[in-house]
């Protein structure tokens, strides 16, 4: 994790660098707004809003365009207006000088958790894979050996359920409950019909095994 410290006060900067390096961060420090904008991308920017060559808020607005960079503003006690403007301009958090090392580290960890969770969203889903079968539940796309498989809505739900529990026996009751929703008395034959249809579409490459009297298992 890279932290960029934007701080013109050498004494404050030294303390920050020591504490952050001690906590295991890769830390770089710049002392001006111009250098802050030129610096290599960081996961977290600790941004002093009182900089000698310009408004820290302008730096903040510029950094907001860089996805994956969290910004924590640093202001002096009494600079409430700057703090508020910073939050309005998109700062993820702020600390007020003088602040303790443990408070700062806790805030850095918190913003990193938030930005990572946020960033992970679009790409978080790994396909469910069972041999040549790939299932993306968010888009409901299924491929078998690279070829798209056309499934009905219920066939998809059924296959996705078995695939996420591949290798396990999934009971008929549980399947009916999950795929046809609870409380609906799905006739047993409905499930059998869907299993038969899925088997037809999957062919020999992916096997849905019947576990007599219990349910079904997607063989791995
Ligand atoms: Ca300053």
Automatic annotation (TrEMBL):
Residues 2-112 form the Response regulatory domain. Residues 125-220 bind DNA. The modification 4-aspartylphosphate is found at residue 48. Keywords: DNA-binding, Phosphoprotein, Transcription, Transcription regulation. The keyword Protein biosynthesis does not apply. One of its GO terms (biological process) is regulation of DNA-templated transcription. One of its GO terms (molecular function) is transcription cis-regulatory region binding. Residues 125-220 form the OmpR/PhoB-type domain. This is Sensory transduction protein RegX3. It comes from Lentzea albida.
């Amino acid at each position: 994790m890279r932290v960029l410290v934007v701080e013109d006060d050498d004494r404050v900067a030294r303390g920050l660098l020591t504490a952050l390096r001690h906590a295991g961060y890769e830390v770089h420090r710049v002392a001006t707004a111009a250098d802050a904008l030129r610096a290599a991308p960081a996961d977290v920017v600790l941004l002093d809003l009182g900089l000698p060559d310009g408004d820290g808020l302008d730096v903040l607005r510029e950094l907001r365009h860089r996805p994956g960079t969290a910004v924590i503003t640093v202001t002096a006690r009494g600079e409430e207006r700057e703090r508020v403007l910073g939050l309005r301009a998109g700062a993820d958090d702020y600390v007020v000088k003088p602040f303790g090392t443990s408070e700062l580290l806790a805030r850095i960890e918190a913003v990193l958790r938030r930005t990572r969770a946020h960033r992970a969203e679009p790409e978080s889903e790994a396909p469910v894979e069972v041999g040549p079968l790939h299932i993306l539940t968010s888009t409901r796309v299924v491929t078998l050996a690279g070829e798209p498989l056309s499934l009905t809505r219920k066939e998809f739900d059924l296959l996705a359920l078995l695939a996420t529990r591949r290798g396990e026996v999934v009971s008929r009751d549980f399947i009916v409950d999950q795929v046809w929703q609870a409380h609906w008395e799905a006739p047993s034959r409905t499930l059998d019909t869907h299993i038969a249809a899925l088997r037809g579409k999957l062919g020999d490459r992916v096997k849905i095994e019947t576990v007599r009297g219990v349910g079904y298992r997607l063989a791995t």
